[in-house]
């Protein structure tokens, strides 16, 4: 498969993946509503729906990994994205620490909207139960959200530094021998693979630290953030093109 074909194929996969994501999110929202409206709740149904979304994320990871092996420069350039999305990209994808900003924001919004019930002692089991102080206590499997965040920040910084070093030598990529270019392209591929691995491990780690209803709200919010940025960026590109 040629490089052009690899990127074209990945672009088609992206479109199909987004469509399938919406179906999985609809199923997750349905399980979420059923849980809230049920007297005893249905956590098994929530877990199953959340796992569908996570498996969908793992599929994206597998396909991007393969595409990166074939054309890492194309993956870094991401021609299928809007200008806004490309401006926000970090090493071939979204920045892992974005997830922590998202979960803090969602928790604060829900906490404020339900503060009266919370003060009355009612616990919903959703993200409103995660007050700022709760992020510093242990959840399931003995881990902490803050602990996971620190680990992610450390790895993210290391990958950023490695990419910066690679970019510093970019001029030699053009001037060097074919062997040197191949070695440098391989190094870039490894850097993107490290970033992809961190992205998947981070979203998996966050989900594992949350209760079923919290998992649903987090995954829905993350997907809405992605589609929202994509939609806004696409609209902006269209307006910019029409003004030319």
TrEMBL record:
| GO MF assignments | sequence-specific DNA binding
Gene Ontology biological process terms from the UniProt entry? DNA-templated transcription
Membrane-spanning parts = none
- Alphabetized Pfam families for the sequence: DOG1
Which top-level group of life is the source organism from? Eukaryota
Q: Where is the DOG1 domain?
A: 7-239
InterPro entries assigned to the protein according to its UniProt record, in alphabetical order: Seed_Dev/Stress_Resp_Reg, TGA_domain
Query: What's the name of the protein?
Result: DOG1 domain-containing protein
Question: Which species?
Answer: Eutrema salsugineum (Saltwater cress)
Q: What is the lineage of its organism?
A: Eukaryota, Viridiplantae, Streptophyta, Embryophyta, Tracheophyta
